[in-house]
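tl;dr need the bound structure. longer version: we got a ligand (2'-deoxycytidine-5'-monophosphate) that a collaborator sent over and nobodys looked at where it sits. i said id run it. heres the input, straight from their email, havent touched it
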Amino acid sequence: MTHHKRTEKALVITIDGPGGAGKSTVSRRIAERLSYTCLDTGALYRALAYKVLQRGIPSGDVTLLADLCAETDISFEMQGGAMTLFVDGEDVTGKIRTEEVGACASAISAVPVVRAALLSLQREAARRGGIVAEGRDVGTVVFPDADVKFYLDASPGTRAVRRHRELLVRGMTADPAQIEKNLAERDRQDSKRDIAPLKPPEGSIIIDTTGMDIDMVVHEMMKVIRRSMASERNQ
Ligand code: DC
């Protein structure tokens, strides 16, 4: 029997986890395999952080942040699986990958008005399904009813090595020890916050990717996804 992809339900798949656990690489691969869209939610926080830094707004100033959210237009375009991000029409895709922007994104992401501003944007992107969303709260808060949820983790050392490699590929230099320190600080900040703290979503499949290469991780995840698709078909 042949089955036709088009009649298959387009799933919402979420991947949560700390920085350097492999979320972005893995989510891109899985989206490619399924011809789904890949939504990098961290990039949205980074886009806003970029403007916060440009304006010199203190990341703890809730009033100024609320004003900024109200007047800022964040949008994105998906092209062949890649996301191009715009802040007030300016393409910021290549400018948001620095450690400075990441740290600021982590700080402002603890502010409720910031999370609220980005929530509808994320849900709108998944309206028709067929999406792999990755971030810190995509399975817990943004898409609690997702069809398949994963939580990726890895040891601090492994995550620091991956982050370092990522920055090198982008042509940036960084000190590995400093990266490990930054990651630990970001983890602490992202996990202890009252709103949408980083944690494994209910019903998620937890994968520790320490010592696994990307192909292995993708393989494990695809098995889970195929099983979920098969059970959808049999319903
Ligand atoms: O994954 P990343 O490094 O691009 O994310 C940058 C910061 O954005 C991260 O430290 C916390 C915040 N973030 C969040 O709070 N919720 C998400 N879904 C994604 C990112």
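gonna send this back to them w/ a short note. The beta strands are 12-16, 37-40, 74-79, 82-87, 90-91, 131-135, 148-153, 205-208.
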